[in-house]
From TrEMBL:
Entry cofactors: Fe cation
Residues annotated to bind Fe cation: H70, H72, H114, E116
Name by which UniProt lists this protein: Pirin-like protein
The entry's keywords: Iron, Metal-binding
Cofactor note: Binds 1 Fe cation per subunit.
Organism per entry: Hydrocarboniphaga effusa AP103
């Protein structure tokens, strides 16, 4: 049944939740991956991306395994480690191992190749790899990484990525800001969305309430209407909040 225009508008601006178990799933043996948005062999026309956010892959990689050297271009790619150690190498000459609290940003620009491997032979690595569509094509590739301590994120939303690298955040080639927060027990924080902006919330682990709505690990929320976003009643929760341009799908608008 076709919705009336007013009903379509009401549904469009509501807080829209994608539950964790509704994500795509890939089991490659050494890699178990959940895809928030269409990726690889998973395609869902309702889950192509949101604003400039194109990929959120929730990856668990067995010890000693990983992604061999492969190319990217014209994409802002960042990794957020939740457990274990992730070893990075790229054709810009960068090589490091990042652990929980570390954030890695690679701007592929005109082209770069990299590999990502579990830094341990025995322990699993659990991380998020997130892609953001850039606002410029063919830029010079660049790389950065930074540690944001648990104390820095405890009971608050810490800016970790921004266009200008404000407050010690990593720079991204897009009008996007990303915040990370840890919430447990009585810890709480509120983010007031700027006017004419969208937001996306991803629960990386644990449980938390967003404006009174319970969310669990892997849940994602599209928010299209400017409002105060209140995080509370967490249980060992870690969340990412994306402050985005008001577009439905990724692209160079």
């Amino acid at each position: 049944m076709e919705l009336a225009p007013s009903a379509r508008l009401e549904r469009r601006i509501a807080m829209q939740i994608t539950q964790a178990n509704d994500r795509g799933y890939a089991n490659h043996g050494w890699l178990k991956s959940r895809h928030t948005f269409s990726f690889g062999g998973y395609y869902n026309p309702e889950q192509i991306g949101f604003s400039d956010l194109r990929v959120i892959n929730d990856d668990r990689v067995d010890g000693g395994e990983g992604f061999g050297t492969h190319p990217h271009r014209d994409m802002e790619i960042f990794s957020y480690v939740l457990e274990g150690a992730l070893a990075h190498r790229d054709t810009m000459g960068n090589g490091s191992t990042i652990r929980p609290g570390d954030v890695q940003m690679m701007s592929a620009g005109s082209g770069v190749a990299h590999s990502e491997f579990n830094g341990s032979r025995d322990e699993l690595v659990h991380f998020l790899q997130i892609w953001i569509v850039p606002n410029v094509r063919g830029a010079t590739p660049r790389y950065g990484e930074r540690n944001f301590s648990a104390d820095d994120k405890r009971g608050r939303l810490r800016l970790i990525i921004s266009p200008e690298g404000n407050e010690g955040s990593l720079e991204v080639r897009q009008d996007v800001k990303v915040y990370a927060g840890l919430f447990d027990g009585a810890e709480a924080a509120t983010f007031t969305m700027p006017e004419n902006r969208y937001a996306y919330v991803h629960v990386a682990r644990g449980e938390v309430e967003l404006n009174g709505q319970k969310l669990v690990e892997g849940d994602g929320v599209r928010i299209r209407e400017s409002q105060a976003l209140s995080f509370a009643n967490g249980r060992d929760s870690e969340v990412l909040l994306f402050d985005l341009r008001p577009y439905e799908l990724p692209g160079l608008q």
